[in-house]
Amino acid sequence: MRESLRGLRRLAALAAAASCLLGHPVHAAIPDTSRIDQVEALRTKDHPRFVQMLQQLHRQADSLGATERWQLRYLDAWQAAYDGNYATADASLQDIIDHAGNPALVAKASARLMDDFSINRRYQAAFMLAHRLVLDLPRIRDKLARFIVLANLSQVFGAAGQYELALDYARQMEDSPPAGESLCASRSMQVTALFNSQKLTSTSPLLPQVADTCTAAGQPVFAETMWLVLANLHLDEGQPGKAAALLQRIAPGITANQYHPHMESAGVMLGRAYWQLGDARKAHDYAAAAVATASPDEVNETLRDGYEVLYRVAKQRGDAATALAYYEHYAAQDKGHLDEVSARALAYQMVQQRVLAEKLRTAELARQNDALRMQQALDTRAVETGRLYIALLLLTLAFIVLWLFRLKRSQLCFKWMARRDSLTGILNHQHFISDAERLLSTLQRKPGDACLVSIDLDHFKQVNDTHGHAMGDAVLKHAVAICQQHLRPGDLFGRLGGEEFGILLHDCPHDQGVAIANRIRIAIATAPLDNGDATVAVSASVGLASTDNSGYQLLRLCMEADAALYRAKRAGRNRVHADHEDAGDADIRGAKQG
Q1: What's the rounded Cα separation, in Å, for the pair 381 and 23?
Q2: Residue 439: what pLDDT?
Q3: CA dist., res. 286 & res. 118, Å (int)
Q4: What angle do CA 388, 394, 400 make, to 5 degrees?
Q5: Is residue 29 within 8 Å of residue 240, measured between CB atoms?
Q6: How far apart are CA 42 and CA 23, in angstroms?
Q7: What is the pTM of this model?
Q8: 152 three-class SS
Q9: Distance CA 467, CA 536 (A)
């Protein structure tokens, strides 16, 4: 069990190698790739060549554009972290995040900075940055930047013991890889997560498959990581010979790439392998060489294992003082490493609590915002409701006004209909009599003259009998229209019944009334009705009474006018007779005027 746990902790350093060395996909065959991209593509494929070309870029810095200069600064920061100069790297990365303005470059710099925080035990800062990157992940459109962010998220969450999350992000790397990117990086990160969750053994075919994939893709550092994992499994499973043989086989490549974590891990594992094989001298030499390369403040499980090997060799040799010194180093490294594991777990939980608190605050603010929006909606609805009420009130008022208007119009219409004859449109008998009495009363007070004219169409019954009642109605309307042409605005005109009409001529002396009556008679007699089917000639007999002779009493005027009308009828029709005229005189007058 102790060896298994030791293997899990040891792989953290190898996983860090995989994530921090994650590079640009190989674009060497693409002729239009920018110089910066060509250099970036060499980071893990040919690191010495990368360093050489980076120096050439610096000599050509004056010819670079603003975006390329920020990219060059990112590569410088990457190389500084590669060399272990994290202070310089982190300052440059933070400046890129704050000022570069390139979303893809900012995402890559954030991922690199997150990994540096983790390496330098700034776990809370690393997990907070990881949380922000998780939130930003859906908005990262650049495939390379997304690829690098996913890889570093897998590494950081794996360091916190969240192996399922680490495996999930590693698998997402395969969903939309950058153009030209192989499966090497994503499969390497998956191996890391699977190993840390104790789901790999030395016989798992995945390890050599991924190592071969990385070798074919020109990613030797990733391939070496897989072989180191396999060697570690051999040691943990009690197969030191296989571990030593594998480590000796990959040693030239590790030396050529000069990547410190690999060199340190390979040396310590060789020391462990030879100790298990019983070769104390080789075990001491390899472990001592590996430990000697570490910086004074470096604390990790690899150094702890190296000091353990040195302690066991010194103890076997009987060198108690040296053994005690190595044991003290071993204990310090073991305590420091366990403290780091605890610190990572605690930092992760603290960040989770902070994130949860932020979510709760955000939820509370959202709730308050929802309440404000609801209140605003209610206020808006209240305004809309008020407007609706006003609109309904205005509509109701408009309806009432329209209803009153129509009612008034109906009343006027009914009043007009009550006063008028339905066929001819002139005053009916009742209202003619009423208006005539009122007008005569007014004239009597002035005083003024008036003539009452009674008109009766001659032989009208024959028209109805011969041409029908429709023609009779047309003749009545025709006669009324002719009479209206000769009347003045102040004159009263009404239908007294059947074919008999009455006219009250206002302010009209006797002689003038006779003249008007005769013009009307002549106009009727000389204007036959032609409706297209038949022509009907009609004449009228007219009787007239004037206030000059009969006074202002309507009854007497009617009697006098009717008597004159009858005289006209008896005299042969189509003539005018006036009150107090001899029959002969009236006939002669009518004949002359006719």
Answers
A1: 58
A2: 92
A3: 28
A4: 135
A5: no
A6: 8
A7: 0.54
A8: helix
A9: 9
